[in-house]
Amino acid sequence: MIGKVGxxxxxxxxDLFRLPGGQFMGKGDLAMRLAPDIMFGxxxxxxxxxxxxxxxxxxxxxxxxxxLGGLALGKLGGRNQALSTVLDMAGxxxxxxxxxxxxEQLQRGKDLVMGGKGQTAYERLSTxxxxxxxxxxxxxxxxxxxxELGLLPxxxxxxxxxxxxxx
Length: 167
Hints:
The protein has helices at 2-15, 27-47, 52-74, 81-113, 121-139, 141-148, 154-161. By secondary structure, the protein is mainly alpha-helical. α2 packs antiparallel against α3 and α3 (52-74) runs antiparallel to α4 (81-113).
């Protein structure tokens, strides 16, 4: 059973690389369809904070999702090259979003395995920034003065100074 499913899935994956006539895509067709997805995967990798694993997961998720989404949706264009190209672009965008969501889940799992809270690289960065801002406000007398004058939002004031409005 698993062998039949694997063979079917492998055949469908190969079909993504076939042109409407049945022959495989040439180098030019592959470059036109995959180069933007791979480039944006590289940009995602470069811009993601965190370690190399976080960066690699983000880049791979973006590149693979965009590539497979574009190839799959581009097949709907049939023999119409212009329509296939437009559908490929739309599929690349959708696949990129799906690939990023998958990569985020893998990042969360990696963070849990490494002893963290199960956060993505961006969530960890946000937590660090929030903690640094809280520390700066606590240490700075301006924050205390603003809280005493009631110029800080109530939720921030209560969170930072332990004053829940009961005193």
